[in-house]
Every structure is written in structure tokens, then in C-alpha cells.
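User: Can you recover a sequence for this backbone? Please restate the input before giving your answer.

Assistant: Of course. Working from this structure:
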């Protein structure tokens, strides 16, 4: 264990708790995504994405907020990299906007788009920060959506081609690659529930989308392997949730099994076992029609070996059955404190999820590719912003990472969501997840107390290691 003595700082107990000892190769990071921070949506030949279209459709987002400007990171990236450096961040997970590289999803490559990410990755390297790139964080080129989007099998091949192009260009500077981010959100929140782009309400479409996203992960992995240098790492980022029956009776337990099938097993099973969960296939076929988009060989492609699993963890889900039938398991009341999103705060859930992944699915290395919280912050005063709840959330979840390591999970990265307050999708700019405050009028950045806590935590972890 580290010999670093707890320091009497201004924070509560959580701020001085001894950091875990980072294993060799472990890095502390921060994460963002292209549409949430970049802005400059028309710059340098970028094409339209489904999020441009969705955000500009009246009624789809809070206040009609769009990512047109966001954090203006496309122009301010150098200062943002410098900011990460001052916070002693060791790794940066960002996403590449497909419509910057291939404005219509296919065809002519837009070199200016590639150059932006190349400069960013090199700028990170110059400061000793590791770049980790996500290929798809929800911004499908609108032209591909016009041809059916992810429900069309052809989009899978377009994605593999995009992956090959980006990998060939950036493979010498970016060593870690994430194919898909949270395919559950893309597929179901985007196509069955309609809360996210492209805003559809169609279960058969959502199921086809989910299959094609998984297939695209496999195909992109294969494509990347042909162009990346040996030693590069590839994985998928899944959002995983502990599922808790609100009441311990049979109906609630059944609802929990279905919710678990819907959000967790539908993705973990094909990736790590090469099969969709049979109970869910039967449920979907009964409730929504044939699940007939799976072709011979697809599951072998989806379960192609990768190098790590990305886990996005925010909260557990408490569930109850609904009168509308098994497809419509409902969210039950949270227990205990929640974040600004209404998400229940439970650091132990992170440890549980990692234990489950290890016990039931894989011993692959894990990256915590997202973890964080939104709270209503005060305005910064004299360059200071106290955000004790976010800091406590961070401290609690870092402690859970330490426990997961002690349990035997091979955790290699921890990325805070997010570096900056940013465009929180359909919730617009109202939900602030940043450890750095952004004034969206002036674009001024102010590190919050949680950012200073994180910096101090990293420093203490490194001293103790
Ligand atoms: C995740 C997304 C990320 C961000 C956080 C709060 O689902 O991957 O872009 O919106 O939630």
C-alpha cells in the first residue's frame, strides 16, 4: 500500500482518503465526445450528422439547444490540451466525428478532418497525454441515415471502411481504439424510445440497429487490425448497469431479468459468448416480430477477440413490471441520493459490474471509459467553484476502482466523464458533467473543486506508487 499520509485539505473525509495504488500501465483520464464539445459543425468540409438534424428539429432537445458551438473545442483544442496538462491528466478519450472524415459517410476522404484529429493526437503526445480514440459516439453522417442508417446492413461496411481510413492515418499516434460507444443508447434510445437521434419509435428498427452496431464493432476491429501497428489495442465501450428489482418478489425479479437482458446481456452475450440471449430473442420475436437480420458468420465476427472492454458506469437501475407487458419494464423510484440527472449514486455498483463481467464474461483488461455526474453548480466566483457533490461522487467511484482492482479486475484506465461542461444531448446545456466549468457565453474554462481534487488524487496516487 501507499505510504502517503492523508493530507488535511479543505475537503471532507473523501478528499483525503488514500488513493489506490495504480497498477503498472494504469492511467487516469478524462473523456469527451465530438458532437458534445467541438462546435464548428460547418468548418473544413464537415458533413451533416444525425445529431445536427435531430438537434435542429423543433421540440427534440431542451431549449432547442444544439451542438453548433458547444465548447468551441474545434478552435480551442490547444488550450484544452494545455488545461488537461495542468490537471495532470494522463489519458484523454475523445471521439472522431465520422462526418468530418467522410462528409457523406462514404466516398471522398476529407483530409482536413483527418488533419484535425492528427494535430490533436500529436498535441496530446507532446504533453505526455495518451490519446484514446472512439470511432463512433453517435454522430452518424446524415447521408447514411437517409439510406436507412444503422438499420441498413450496408452501413456496417461503410463503418469498417471509415475505421480503416482513420486507423491508417492515426495509427502511429493513437494506440487505443474504441469502436462503438454505448450501442444500447444508439439502438434503443435512438430508434425505439426516440429520445436521441435519429428519434425513431420502432422496435424492429432498433433491433436491426443493435445487431448492425455489434457487427460493425467486429468488422471495424478486423479492419483496424489490417492497418494498426502491432501492440495497438481495440475494444468496445458498453454502458452497464446493475439491475435491482424494486421489490423482492417474483414479478419484480422477472422484470429485472428482462431489463438486464435489454441493457446488459443483449450486448455482452454476443461480444463475449457469440450468441444473443435466447430469452430476449424469444421475447422480442413474440412482441415485435422476427429478428431476422442475423446472417451466418455474424456472431463470429461480433465476438472476434479484442484487447479490452470499455465500461461506462453511472448508476444502478431499480425496476418494476408494467401493465403494458414485458417489453415495457418500468423504472422504479431511486433509493438514496441522486445526481442532477436523477441517477442514483452507488459507487458499489461499479465494483459489482466489474465483478460480474469477470465472473460471467471475460478476464480481458477493462477501461472505465466513462464515469461521472451532473449537478447544478454555482457560478464561479474569483476563479473558484465548489462542487462538493461531484467531488464526492468522484472520490467514491475512485475508491470503487481501487476495490475492483483488489478483487482481481484488470482495470487499466479510469476516464472521468467529462473534462468540460458540454452539450448533454437531448438535455442540452442544462446538465453540467464537467470537472471544468464552461461559461457558454464567453467560453471561459474554470476548473471546479472536483478537478482540483482529481489532480491532487492523481498526484498522491503517483507519489504512493
Ligand atoms: C453517456 C454518453 C456520454 C454522456 C454521458 C453523460 O451515456 O456516452 O456522451 O452523455 O452519458
Amino acid at each position: 500500500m501507499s505510504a502517503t499520509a492523508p493530507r488535511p485539505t479543505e475537503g471532507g473525509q473523501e478528499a483525503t482518503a488514500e488513493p489506490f495504488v495504480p497498477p503498472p500501465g494504469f492511467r487516469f483520464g478524462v473523456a469527451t465526445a465530438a458532437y458534445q464539445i467541438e462546435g464548428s459543425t460547418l468548418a473544413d468540409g464537415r458533413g451533416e450528422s444525425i445529431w445536427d438534424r435531430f438537434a435542429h428539429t423543433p421540440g427534440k432537445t431542451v431549449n432547442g439547444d444544439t451542438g453548433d458551438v458547444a465548447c468551441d473545442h474545434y478552435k480551442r483544442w490547444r488550450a484544452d490540451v494545455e488545461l488537461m496538462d495542468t490537471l495532470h491528466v494522463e489519458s484523454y478519450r475523445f471521439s472522431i466525428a465520422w462526418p468530418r472524415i467522410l462528409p457523406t459517410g462514404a466516398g471522398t476522404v476529407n483530409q482536413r478532418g483527418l488533419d484535425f484529429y492528427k494535430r490533436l493526437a500529436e498535441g496530446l503526445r507532446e504533453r505526455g497525454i495518451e490519446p484514446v480514440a472512439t470511432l463512433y459516439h453517435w454522430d452518424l453522417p446524415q447521408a447514411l441515415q437517409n439510406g436507412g442508417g444503422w438499420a441498413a446492413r450496408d452501413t456496417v461496411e461503410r463503418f469498417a471502411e471509415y475505421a480503416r481510413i482513420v486507423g491508417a492515418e492515426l495509427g502511429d499516434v493513437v494506440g487505443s481504439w474504441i469502436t462503438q460507444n454505448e450501442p444500447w443508447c444508439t439502438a434503443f434510445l435512438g430508434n425505439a424510445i426516440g429520445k436521441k437521434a435519429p428519434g425513431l419509435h420502432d422496435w424492429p428498427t432498433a433491433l436491426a440497429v443493435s445487431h448492425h452496431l455489434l457487427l460493425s464493432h467486429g468488422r471495424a476491429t478486423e479492419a483496424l487490425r489490417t492497418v494498426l501497428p502491432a501492440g495497438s489495442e481495440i475494444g468496445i465501450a458498453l454502458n452497464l448497469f446493475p439491475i435491482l428489482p424494486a421489490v423482492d418478489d417474483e414479478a419484480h425479479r422477472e422484470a429485472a431479468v428482462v431489463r438486464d437482458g435489454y441493457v446488459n446481456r443483449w450486448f455482452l452475450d454476443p461480444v463475449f459468448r457469440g450468441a444473443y440471449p435466447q430469452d430476449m430473442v424469444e421475447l422480442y420475436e413474440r412482441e415485435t416480430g422476427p429478428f431476422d437480420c442475423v446472417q451466418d458468420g455474424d456472431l463470429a465476427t461480433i465476438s472476434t477477440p479484442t484487447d479490452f472492454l470499455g465500461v461506462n458506469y453511472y448508476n444502478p437501475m431499480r425496476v418494476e413490471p408494467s401493465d403494458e407487458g414485458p417489453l415495457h419494464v418500468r423504472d422504479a423510484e431511486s433509493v438514496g441520493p441522486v445526481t442532477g440527472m436523477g441517477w442514483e449514486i452507488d459507487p458499489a455498483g461499479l465494483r459489482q459490474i466489474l465483478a460480474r463481467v469477470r465472473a460471467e464474461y471475460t478476464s480481458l483488461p477493462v477501461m472505465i471509459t466513462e464515469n461521472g455526474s451532473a449537478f447544478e453548480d454555482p457560478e464561479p466566483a474569483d476563479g473558484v467553484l465548489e462542487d462538493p457533490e461531484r467531488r464526492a461522487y468522484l472520490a467514491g467511484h475512485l475508491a470503487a476502482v481501487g476495490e475492483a482492482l483488489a478483487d482481481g479486475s484488470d482495470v487499466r484506465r479510469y476516464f472521468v466523464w467529462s473534462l468540460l461542461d458540454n452539450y448533454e444531448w437531448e438535455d442540452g446545456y442544462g446538465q453540467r458533467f464537467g470537472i471544468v466549468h464552461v461559461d457558454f457565453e464567453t467560453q471561459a474554462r474554470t476548473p471546479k473543486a472536483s478537478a482540483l481534487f482529481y489532480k491532487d488524487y492523481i498526484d498522491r496516487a503517483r507519489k504512493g506508487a
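That completes the design. The pocket of beta-D-fucopyranose is lined by residues 33, 36, 181-182, 185, 239, 312, 370, 417, 424-425, 433 (CB under 6 Å).
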